[in-house]
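Q: Sequence in, structure out?
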Amino acid sequence: MVRILFFTSPIGLGHASRDIAISDELVNIGVGMDEMIFVTGSVAYNYIRDHGYNAINAYRGKSIHARNGIFSNRLLWLLDYISFYRECKGIASSLIDEYRPELIVSDEDFASIAIAEVRGIKNVLITDVLESRFLQGPLSLVERFLNRYLRGIIARADMVIVPMNKDEYNHGYTDSIGSANIAYVGPIVRRVSMERDELRRVLGFHGYKTILVSVGGTSSGRFLIERVIDAYIRIVDRFSMPTKMVIVSGPSIDINTISNHINRRVHSIELHGYVKNMHEMIYAADLLISLAGRSTMDEARVYGTPSIFIPIKGHFEQEDNARAYGFSYSDIYRLEDLILKHVMDKRMDAITSHGAYEAAKRVYQLT
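A: Exactly. Output:
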C-alpha cells in the first residue's frame, strides 16, 4: 500500500534534495521506504533513485534557459509552464487513481495538489514561492491570472510547508489566503554523515583552501562555471596558501565541455559531473560559489560555509535570494575580488535547523 505519494518538481535538483531530507526523517519516525513513492522526472528521478527511494519517471524535464546568465524569454517560459502544468495534471490524475495514496505531498508541483483537492485526498504543499513575479508591464496580466489560480490552490491545501523562518518571508497577500494552513519550519537540509575534518580528508580537501563551485541540476549555470574558471586562472598565483577549486557541473552540463575550458597549466582545478553528496561537499568547503537557488543557499547557511551567490538575471526568486546576502548578477564582473576577499572569511556560526524534522512531523501527522 502506498502511504505517501510524493510529487517532486523536476526543475533542477533543489526540490528533490529537500524532499529526500524530509523522507529520511519520515523513515526515522517510522514510515517505511516502501510506503513512499516519488513522482518526478528528468535528473530529479535519477537523484531520488540514487538515494534508495522508489520513483516514477513521469514528468518531462523543464529548466530555465539563460544565455550568459540572463533569463530573457520569460513570457515564453511562463506560457510553456502553463502547458506543462496541464500535462502534469493529466499524469498526476492517472497515478493518483492508480496508487490511491493516503496522503499526497507536493514540492511545488501544483498540478498534483489540484487533483488531490478534487479527489478529497489529504495533501501537503512544500514551497518557498507563494507568487510568481517573472513579468512586468502589460504582460504581467498573464502572471496575475496564474497567481490568482495558484493562491486558491494554496489556500485550499491541508498544509503548506515553507522551508524558511516566518520573519524571512513577507508577502502581503498571505493574510488574504489565510495563514492557518501555513507552517514555517526553517531551512530544510540533509544531515551530514561525518564530522567536517573527516569529510575534508575523505574528499581530498585537507591541506587546501577549497573553493567549491556548484550550479545545481540544470544547464543554466554554465555561464557561472566559465566565469569562475577565468577568474581563478587570473588569481591562482595570488593566494597565500595552497588552494584548489572543485567544480561540480551537475547532471545537465557535459563535463567534457567544461574540461575544454580549463587551462591545462592550472593543476589545482578538480572537475566533477554529478555527485550524490553535494551537501557534504558544501559543508567541507572553505568557500562556495553558486547560483542563488534556495536549497543550496540553505545548506551553506546551516553548515556555516562562506559563500558567493550569483543569481540568474531576470529570475525573481534567485535575485531576491541573492539580494538577502548582498549579491547581485553584476557581481559576475568582479569575481576575482570577491574570491580573494571571501576565501579568507572565517566560517560562519552553524545554524541549528530542524526544518526537515519539523516538515516530516507535520507530514506524518496527516497520515
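The chain has two domains: 4-187+354-365, 196-342.
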